[in-house]
Amino acid sequence: MNVLGLGDNVVDKYVYKSMMYPGGNAVNFSVYAKQLGAQAAYLGIFGTDEEGRHVHRVLNELGVDTSRCRSAEGENGCSLIELIDGDRVMVGWNKGGVQQEHPLVFDASDYSYMKQFQWIHTSIYSGIESQLPELRTLGVPLSFDCSDEWDDNYLKRVCPQVDLCLLSCGAMEEDAVREKLAFVASAYGCTGVLGTMGSRGALLYYNGAFYLQKPHFVQPVDTLGAGDSFFTAFVLALLTEGEWNKAPEASVRKALDAGAAFAAKTCLVEGAFGYGKPY
């Protein structure tokens, strides 16, 4: 199995202890896929600072293919996290650093490279919305993480171009999540829409049916990356079943449980997947 994380990378700086950890939706997908036994690549842009070099070094150490990545002079993507009343809270970020001034623009050789993969995953933080129609023509299943920054206008723009959409829905009641997922799928044509709800688990709308997955509870060390790890394991499990978009109910439920199990393991690691470095 060969998958690609496309777009954002950051270092998550834990300000209260002066440690930084590699991460970002696209990077996390690639790393988690590698941990689960897939061949994984990442295509994004690194800053030339120590933060960017650290993310790049770690990906190379883990065996994630970064051969198509770019670099640009300046700050790597960075988020700032504080400990507030026992909870880790994001208190700021630099909007992707060099990715702002040097957004990813793909050429014919990039698109040819992407065709080799069985799945591509990207996010709202990757800045490639305008290139989604071209990505759609590649014939490779495409997932998109909208995080919790989506609104209906944004979903209307993005979702018709992707196969599987992720929405962070932790602040919504379950009935409202169900209504939103069904609407997105029916109005915009996604095969699947996955709403993550924090400690309440995740709700999937897939081929006209709802699936609720409760979390596998552990005493967490750090919940950063739990949603990304859940999604990655879920997707890989679906892919192993054959045609991901036509999986029977039993396979979908099995894949969701695999996601919950892997997310629980991720919660036992500092940062999204470890590799902290003092700064």
Blueprint (SSEs and pairs):
Blueprint: E1 2-6, E2 10-14, E3 19-23, H1 25-35, E4 39-43, E5 45-47, H2 50-62, E6 70-72, E7 78-84, E8 87-93, H3 98-101, H4 108-114, E9 119-123, H5 132-136, E10 142-145, H6 152-158, E11 164-168, H7 174-188, E12 192-196, E13 202-206, E14 209-213, H8 226-240, H9 249-266, E15 277-278
Parallel strand pairs: 1-4, 1-9, 2-7, 5-6, 9-10, 10-11, 11-12
Antiparallel strand pairs: 2-3, 3-15, 7-8, 12-13, 13-14
Describe the overall structure.
This protein is of the alpha/beta class. The protein has one domain (2-278): 3-Layer(aba) Sandwich (UDP-N-acetylmuramoyl-L-alanine:D-glutamate ligase). 34% of the residues lie in helices and 25% in strands. It contains 9 helices and 15 strands. Strands 4-1-9-10-11-12-13-14 form an 8-stranded mixed beta sheet, sandwiched between helices. Helix 1 (25-35) packs across helix 8 (226-240) and helix 8 (226-240) packs antiparallel against helix 9. The radius of gyration is 17 Å and the shape is globular. It starts with a strand and ends with a strand.
